[in-house]
């Protein structure tokens, strides 16, 4: 019974736990609205070290530098779009967690559709492939089978 209770407590704590953000207390802006804007922008920017985390979630020093840069630009009065454009101009489009839709990223956006289409086409082709129909026995073969079946 104590093990079950411990397991239930561990499960409850696991379900209640919220994701820890890497933003340090010294980075947080005093204005809650501006801090919310900074968090919103940071969620869409990729950590260039981790590459699969936003700068809001990453503990890497470069992510911290980017978080500070976002907050500095907001303090200077830039809009959200201006901040993102500034970071993209400085680090390239790779810094965006969600790539822009354009001619240069068309293959990136269409590749899932192409993969699904090719898979569906392959399944369709396999379903249309039919096993060759068995031909009937010739008269001589049928007579031979009859003779074999009549033997004692």
UniProtKB/TrEMBL annotation:
Database matches in InterPro entries: C-type_cytochrome_biogenesis, CcmH/CycL/Ccl2/NrfF_N, CcmH/CycL/NrfF/Ccl2_sf
Heme as UniProt keyword: yes
Family: Belongs to the CcmH/CycL/Ccl2/NrfF family.
Signal sequence interval, chain numbering: 1-22
Coiled-coil residue windows: none
CDD domains from the UniProt entry: CcmH_N (cd16378)
Biological role stated in the UniProt entry: Possible subunit of a heme lyase.
Domain CcmH/CycL/Ccl2/NrfF N-terminal residues, every copy: 11-149
The organism's place on the tree of life at top rank: Bacteria
Keywords tagged on the record: Cytochrome c-type biogenesis, Heme, Iron, Membrane, Metal-binding, Signal, Transmembrane, Transmembrane helix
Transmembrane residue ranges: 101-124
Name of the protein this chain belongs to: Cytochrome c-type biogenesis protein
């Amino acid at each position: 019974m104590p093990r079950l209770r411990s397991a239930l407590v561990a499960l409850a704590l696991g379900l209640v736990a919220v994701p820890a953000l890497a933003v340090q207390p010294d980075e947080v802006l005093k204005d809650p609205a501006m801090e919310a804007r900074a968090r919103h922008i940071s969620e869409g920017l990729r950590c260039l070290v981790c590459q699969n985390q936003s700068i809001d979630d990453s503990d890497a020093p470069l992510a911290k530098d980017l978080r500070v840069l976002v907050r500095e630009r907001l303090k200077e009065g830039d809009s959200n779009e201006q901040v993102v454009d500034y970071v993209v101009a400085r680090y390239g489009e790779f810094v965006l967690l969600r790539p822009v839709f354009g001619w240069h990223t068309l293959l990136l956006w269409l590749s899932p559709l192409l993969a699904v289409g090719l898979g569906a086409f392959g399944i369709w082709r396999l379903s249309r492939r039919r096993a060759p129909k068995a031909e009937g026995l010739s008269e001589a073969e049928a007579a031979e089978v009859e003779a074999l079946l009549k033997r004692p």
